[in-house]
Amino acid sequence: MELSLASAKPSPRAAGAGPAAAASTSSLLSAAWVRGRSGRRRGAGAVCAAAVSVSGEEVFGGRKELTGVQPLVEALPPVARTAVELAVVAAAAAAGYGIGLRAGGTQTTAVAGAAVLGAASVAGAAAVNSSVPGVAAVGLHNYVAGCDDPTKLESSEVEAIASKYGVSTQDATFKAELCDLYDRFVFSLIHPGYEDLEGSEVEDIIKFKKALGLNDLEAANVHMEIAKRIDRDAGIGQQQEFQKLIFVTNLVFRDASEFLLPWKRLFGVHESQIDNVMRESAKSLYASLLKSIGRGLDIGTLIEVRRAQLAYKLSDEIAAEMFREHAKKLVEENISSALNNLNNRAQVVDEVKSILAFNGLLTILSKFPGEDRFVRGLGPITLGGDSDHESRVEDLKMLYSAYAMEVLSDGRLDDDKLAALNQLRNIFGLVKYEAEAIISDVKARVRMATGRTGICLAVGSASAAQDRQLQFALVPGRVM
After folding, report:
1. Which of 31, 113, 221, 303 is deepest in the core (most CB within 10 A)?
2. Residues 6 or more apart whose Cβ sits within 8 Å of residue 139
3. 274 lies in a domain?
4. Is 211 in the same domain as 160?
5. Do 257 and 142 fall into the same domain?
6. Which among 167, 118, 119 has a CA at the least distance from the CA of 139?
7. Does residue 159 sit in the same domain as residue 262?
8. How many other C-beta atoms are found inside a 10 Å radius of the C-beta of residue 362?
9. Sorting pLDDT into bands at 50, 70 and 90, what band is 139?
C-alpha cells in the first residue's frame, strides 16, 4: 500500500483518487460529522468549521513540514535506509584509513583515522535513524489531517504508516502524535459555550480511538488532560463545556469509567454531581431525538430512539415520562389547529380523527409483541390531570361536541362510534357525565335538524347489556 504521507504532495484522501474516490468524498462527510457544525467558531486547537463541512485539516491543524535530514528519511524505505547507513559508515571508515596512510602515518595511525571518521559517520547514521519516529509522526499527522472525514479512518491505515517507516505504533514519538490527534478530535466535538451536543459524539470518538489503536488508559489520560485545560471559573460556557466532556467521556468508557476517570480526585467533582450531569445531558439529547417521532409512529424510528436511550444511560422512567409529554404535545398541536379553525367543521373533525388515530396506534403498539424494543411510554394518552386542564376544558368540550355531531349526524350510533367517543372522552380527560351531557345535547340537535324521534342504533352483535347502555340515545332528555 503506497501512501503519500509527509511530503508536500496532498494525501490521496485530500486529492481524491479517481471517480470512485470523488464520489465517496463528495458526500461532504458523514451525517454525524457534518450535522450542525457549519459556521461554528471554535477556540485554539478546536474546529473552525467551513461554510459547508469540517475537514480533517481544520480539526487537526495544517500540514507539517519536514526539516533537516527528515526529507531524506521520508524518501527512503526502511531497507534502503539501513543499506545507505551501512554504506556511509563503511565509506567513511575506508576514507579515514587511507588518509592516515597518505599522511605518512603508520598502520596504527591509519586505523585511528578510520576510527575517527567511522565514529563520526556512525553518529550521523544514528542521528538519521533517530529521526525516523519523528518523520513517521509527521506522516501520520499529515495523512489524518488530509482526511475528508476523520471518522472514516481505519486502523489499517495507521498501521500502514508505521510500517512504511519501520517504526512501532508503540514508539513514544509516534504514540505522542496518536494522542495529540485524539486530543484534537475529542476537543473538536465538545462544543465550547452554549452549543448542545448532537448525539453522535460518543460513537465518533469510540471509532476514532479504535482506529488510532489507543487503549482505554491512554485515551482516558487524554480526556483528563482536556478537562484540565477547561477553566471552569471563566464563566457558564466553560462550565457547560466541562459538563459535556464528563457526559461524553463517561459514555465512551462506560463500565470502566469508575477507575479510569478520577473526576473527584483531580477536579473535586462528586458522584452526585456526575449523576446529575449524566441525567440532564441525556434528557437534553433524548428530547431532541423525540422530535423525530411523529403521529405515524414509524417502527424503525421507535427502535432507534430506544437504542439511543440505552446508549445515553437514561432511565426507563424518565424516558417514558418524556415520551408521554411528547405525545401530548402532538395531540395539543391538533387541538390548537382545530380551535383555530372552528368555522371549518371538516378541518376540526379531521384534527380530532388524527388524535384518535394517533391514540389508537399508541395503544396497539403498547401491546405489540417485542414492544420492549420500542420507546418507553407507549400507551393511551390523557390530558386529564394536567395543570392547565381546568382552564382548557371548555375548549375540549367544544371539540368533543363537534366530533359527536359529525358521527351522529346520520342518526346512527353503532359500536365503533361509541368506542371512538369513549376514547376521545378519555383523551380529553372529560368526566363521564360531561361527555354524556354533550352527546344528549347533540342527539337533541340532530332530532331537531332531521325531524327524527330518535337516533337509530346499529349495534350489530352487541350484548343485551350494551343495548340497555345505549338506550339513552332513544329516550329524549334522558342522560345515562
Report:
1. 113
2. 3, 5, 6, 74, 161, 164, 165
3. no
4. yes
5. yes
6. 167
7. yes
8. 20
9. confident
